[in-house]
Design brief:
seven-stranded antiparallel sheet, mainly beta, 264 residues
Length: 264
């Protein structure tokens, strides 16, 4: 009896471990069975798009078991063009919701051109599985896309968040994008210049509009001016700022003011 109980506990532990991890290579092979191996760690689809499964690139496919619904696994798969361009990349992004055990695709959503960039490069993507309880019976998941500029004298960067829900057995965008972090500046490459750094946090509010909870936005900002002082030393003066706001659902999406919108 003790041996039987031990075996049951072991199998339960193995099942739990399997339900808390994902295998992006297995997902890609299951969803794109006709994709062929190319360079190390990449696959080529019948549509001649490249899928990177190395995990070493901003264009790599990623996955995560959804803690709110561990029977489901989320994946974000960049589908990159093989065409070379001077300053960036061309590519789509496909979001997948899969059965965590069988890898059966439950929902999928193609985001055309979402992985395309130029001088302001995409530096990473990440799935956000915080508990975004946007409605009593609806939990969203998020997608972060980070970008960074290549100019030394005009630095720029951001982390933008979008939210998605499963509704009527389909994936649907409910928050098209808000910049959670945004930094920019212009300087002479030596000392003198101006810089801005903004950080925003989101929280689900207690009030709602058209069935979806309001999202509270809290913002902290630092505006810095750098200059050569009377002693000939580079110094900076900071101005701190705070702001709050609320995103309301309009029946289709959360309305995001242009001042909070991401670079794309």
């Amino acid at each position: 009896m003790r041996l039987l109980i031990s075996g049951i506990l072991l199998l339960s532990s193995q099942g739990l471990n399997a339900a808390t991890r994902c295998d992006i290579s297995a997902i890609v092979q299951h969803v794109w069975p006709d994709a062929k191996p190319a360079a190390e760690g990449t696959m080529i689809t019948p549509a001649n798009q490249v899928i990177d499964i190395t995990g070493n690139s901003p264009q790599s496919a990623i996955c995560r078991v959804w803690p709110a619904q561990p029977e489901l696994t989320l994946a974000a798969v960049p589908l990159m063009s093989q065409e070379k361009i001077d300053y960036g990349h061309n590519g789509d992004l496909e979001l997948l919701v899969l059965n965590s055990v069988t890898l059966e695709v439950k929902q999928r959503l193609l985001l055309p051109e979402r992985m395309s960039d130029d001088a302001i490069r995409i530096t990473g993507i990440a799935l956000d599985t915080a508990r975004w309880k946007v409605a009593p019976n609806q939990t969203a998941f998020g997608l972060h896309i980070t970008r960074s500029g290549s100019s030394r004298v005009n630095p720029i960067g951001e982390d933008a968040l979008s939210l998605y829900v499963i509704e009527n057995n389909q994936l649907r965008l409910v928050l098209a994008g808000i910049a959670l972090t945004a930094n920019s500046g212009e300087w002479d490459g030596n000392c003198a210049g101006e810089f801005n750094d903004i950080k925003r946090t989101l929280a689900i509010g207690s009030s709602s509009h058209k069935g979806y909870a309001d999202i509270r936005v809290s913002e902290k900002s630092v505006a810095s001016t750098a200059f050569i002082d009377a002693k000939g030393e580079c110094t900076a003066k900071d101005t701190l700022g705070k702001a709050t706001g609320t995103l309301h659902y309009d029946g289709k999406q959360y309305t995001v003011p242009q001042t909070l919108a991401p670079l794309e």
